Structure formats: C-alpha cells, structure tokens
Amino acid sequence: MSGMSVSSLGGAYAAWRQTTTMHDARAADAAAAPAMAQGGGDTQATPAGLADALSEAEQRQVAELAKRDREVRAHEMAHVAAGAGLVTRGASYTYQTGPDGQRYAIGGEVGIDTSPGRTPEETLAKAERIRAAALAPAEPSGQDRQVAAQAARMANDARLEIARREFAQGDTGAEATRDGAVDRGMRAAQAYSEGLAPRQAPTLSASA
User: Fold this and answer.
1) Which of 8, 60, 78, 105 has the smallest number of Cβ neighbours within 10 A?
2) Regarding beta strands 103-113 and 19-24, do their DSSP bridges make them parallel or antiparallel, or are they unpaired?
3) Rounded CA gap, 38 and 93, in Å?
4) What are 78-129's pLDDT values in tens digits?
5) Is pTM beyond 0.90 here?
6) Does 170 fall in a domain?
7) Is residue 152 situated within a structural domain?
8) Rounded to an integer, what distance in angstroms lies between the CA atom of residue 86 and that of residue 105?
9) pLDDT of residue 103
10) Could you tell me the residue range of the domain that residue 62 belongs to?
11) Residue 190 lies in a domain
C-alpha cells in the first residue's frame, strides 16, 4: 500500500491528486481454509444440507469467517462514510473461501485523496477530514493510524503557513502605521513652527 506523502506547504500548492489507502488486513483464523481471491461480491448463506455435513471444527471456522466478514465490511464502510467527497476508490475486499465453499471478506481497503488544497486553509480543513476518515472505524488498523498521523502533520504544516502569512501581513501593516505616524508628526511640527514665527511681508528700511 502506498503511504501518504505530504508536500511542502511553503510555496504554491500542488494541483495533482494523490491517493493513499486506508485498510484493515488482519489475518483471519489460521485454521481457516487458505483459498483467497480479490474482488467484490457478498457472502452467501451456507445451504442447510452443507452446514449439517460440516464438522464442528469447520462450523466454528465458518462462524469465525462470517464474523470477520461483518467486521471488515463495517470497518471499510466507516471509512467511506467519514471520507465522503475524498474517497477516490470505494471499498475493495480480499476474500477467503471457507469450508462451506462460500467466500468471506477478511481484509479490505478504501482509496482517499490526500493531495494538499489550493490554500493553507483548504489544506487544513482537508487534513482534518482525512484524519477523521482514517480513525472512523471502531478499531483503526496500523495503516489507518499512519494515514491519520500523516494527516496531522499535514494540518500542522498548514497552520504554520497560515501563521507565517499572518505574521508577514502584520509586519507590513505595522510599517505602514509607523510611516504614517512619522509623516503626520512632521506635518504637525511644521505647522507648530509656522504658528510661532508667522511669515511677514518683506520691508525696505533706510538709515537715519
């Protein structure tokens, strides 16, 4: 599975879309049948006659696989629901065939867009949604937690970029304020000086 790569937020924001996966791929019971396949499909109910023909151990394996199937599907659907608008690829599953001949989902994954936004604010909001989607299942997998951690770093980078921009804008505003204050002070001093020594018309004088 590819990891989420967070690009630098210091300059222009990337326009490309990057996708990573959130998945739950814990191994099924080691005693279960080993046949596995990728793809879609729903678990079929075991025919009553076949279920009766299974041994107690095989029936336990089927019950465990059915439970695992429900957990995996709920896990991936939690990602999809929380990541609405960011999901690039719906849930896909890895199946294992049980002793009853039916396929059960034992792992799955969901693709999610992890590219930065066009602005730091957009990136911050997106990172928070990615993190929420990654941690949506009741039991996030190791991969889910990695995506959440990288989304948190993406959010922190965006916050730093926002803070740097606001600081720079504050400096520019302060300089303009200082320049304006100096200009007003000089004009006031000039007016005060002229008030003390008003200009007079030139005169001609003659000596006695």
Assistant:
1) 8
2) antiparallel
3) 6
4) 999 999 999 999 999 999 999 999 999 999 999 999 999 999 999 999 999 9
5) no
6) no
7) yes
8) 24
9) 98
10) 19-163
11) no
